[in-house]
User: Fold PAS domain-containing protein from Massilia cellulosiltytica.
Amino acid sequence: MNGPHEILQDSDVQALISYLEHESAPMIVMNTNYDILAANTAYQREFGVAGTPYVGRKCYAMSHHYDRPCDQAGEHCPMRNAFATHAPDRVLHIHHTPRGPEHVDVELRPIVDARHQIVGFVERLQTVRHASAQPSSKGLVGSSPAFNRSLGDLQRVAASDLPVLLLGESGTGKELFARAVHEGSGRSRGPFVVVDCSGLTETLFESELFGYERGAFTGASHRKPGLVETAKGGTLFLDEIGDVPLSMQVKLLRLIESGAYRRVGGVETLQADFRLVAATHKPLREMVANKVFRDDLYYRISAFPIRLPPLRERREDIPMLVESLLARSASASGKPMHASDAALAMLMSYDWPGNIRELRNVLDRARLFADDGELRPEYLNLDVSASHAPGTELRDDASFRDYVKRFKGSRKELASALGMSERSLYRRLKLVAAG
Ligand SMILES: Nc1ncnc2c1ncn2[C@@H]1O[C@H](COP(=O)(O)OP(=O)(O)OP(=O)(O)O)[C@@H](O)[C@H]1O
Assistant:
């Protein structure tokens, strides 16, 4: 890509890097040919490997171990975009780091000369702390494209004070995501308060949320602060917001719009101070059309919607999730556990209507049978055939290929784990190889 004018001089690189030394974030300077020219100390500390030089190496080789640019390896390349727009571009990638694969928020800023030619780039890399791209004993885990898309959205919005709406089936991790939004925000030192809106009657909803004064109703023997008050300086997570009764929606809207509210039975107007994260598994837009959810409230909360994928759309993450979830309960019982290949195959071909919560429950049950620490298919109690017609397992080719690569048993075992005949398996393998 280098033209005659598109060269960054050594002295420019030196000047730039001395400037970037004052940044706490890891930063590198690159030319237009993907070569790393320099890096600040923060980069060396976080991504450098002793004895391995990075100057002169390609960014895609360093971060991804690829032998060609990311966009030719099926990933988004921010350099392409920056060339097209002459503006910074930001993307969430999984990078190889000295600590293994990690989610990294990459921002690429072009350096433009007097002739409006891009002569190089400064790249800022920020490791995402609230999600893990390898098995982990806590927090969000995943590295599939579907999961990364949601995480990329989260990364963009977390630091702002904008309301976030999490949309996803039950058990997809809405609460964990909400917590991650909180932790990635400037309010992370403040409280994170969860309000489960389902099953709250109108009166309960109001007194829980706004609190009440002494004597407000029978049994109110003392003043009680509401959850809005508790969330002061932090994040208020309204789970299942689609379940809020119509009559309460207007009060919620007023609270969100003006921040003003009153305790039940009180006269004093209080001022709220929270960042709103709401979640639902219900089709809110449809509910607005059917007039069971207020449109003004919908527009207010849906400024930044994030869709959380169901587990069946991120099957590649199942092995990592299984290992993480097994380790999470292992710490309670003290016994290490692992799933056999055949068990893993079965877990990957199931449809998971209850998503990660269901996966966790299945594993918690199965572990009680695994006396020797190995989880086998017969302990899983899964009706794989009911959830999948034979031959349609792992519908998309990428997850099928990934799955076959991981499976360590024979072809016959693989076919039976997938619930298909060996012939169908061979046909599918051939199709995938051809595609
Ligand atoms: N990406 C993930 N990595 C690891 N664990 C996860 C992930 N997503 C969810 N979990 C786990 O799955 C379970 C369900 O998650 P969570 O309660 O956040 O789901 P939810 O969408 O809020 O469910 P509901 O809609 O039923 O309230 C929890 O035990 C959570 O820790």
Remarks:
- The chain has three domains: 10-127, 145-307, 312-434.
- The first strand starts at residue 27 and ends at 30.
